[in-house]
User: Which sequence fits this backbone?
């Protein structure tokens, strides 16, 4: 699979709204985004630990320009009633946008480890499937993010079976089993 960019959106949700959030996010929010030309697929993840956001959605984009398109900006700046009702319950949002060379097909069931670095990574990617990119900090932010700045530097997404992560990532590095995301749903991606 080719792809020119990625968007990661991480967040927690108020505990009393978790079931509503799950229903809204999988049945309404992500399918809405996939209707935007250039948003090519998404995978939703749930945290396997306590140090990461509770949820993380990985979007494959044709380019970072998709996030400035009128279709995308209308969705985030003029949300429908269901989205407006859910927004107050979305907590501690995090947003990462990156340009990438290419995006390989991500096998079904692979877990995700997210690593960031202010410069290039001092260690090579070791996972069976990895995506690296330069973070883009000149995008307009999502309204839910307020005035927060987009992060700078590099990002690496490592996808692997959980058994691989348990035995192949050294202690003390990002990706310890307590800091990963397990897959929930796939949208617009071919399954392997």
Assistant:
């Amino acid at each position: 699979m080719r792809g020119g960019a990625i968007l990661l959106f991480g967040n927690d949700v108020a505990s009393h709204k978790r079931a509503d959030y799950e229903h809204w996010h999988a049945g309404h929010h992500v399918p809405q985004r996939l209707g935007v030309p250039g948003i090519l697929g998404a995978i939703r993840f749930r945290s396997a630990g306590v140090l990461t956001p509770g949820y993380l959605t990985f979007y494959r984009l044709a380019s970072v320009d998709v996030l400035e398109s009128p279709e995308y900006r209308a969705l985030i700046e003029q949300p429908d009633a269901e989205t407006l009702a859910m927004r107050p319950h979305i907590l501690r949002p995090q947003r990462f946008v990156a340009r990438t060379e290419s995006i390989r097909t991500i096998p079904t069931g692979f877990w995700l480890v997210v690593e960031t670095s202010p410069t290039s990574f001092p260690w090579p990617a070791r996972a069976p499937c990895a995506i690296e990119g330069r973070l883009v900090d000149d995008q307009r932010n999502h309204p839910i993010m307020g005035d927060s700045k987009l992060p700078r530097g590099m990002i690496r997404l490592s996808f692997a079976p959980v058994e691989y992560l348990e035995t192949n990532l050294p202690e003390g590095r990002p990706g310890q089993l307590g800091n990963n995301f397990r897959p929930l749903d796939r949208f617009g991606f071919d399954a392997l």
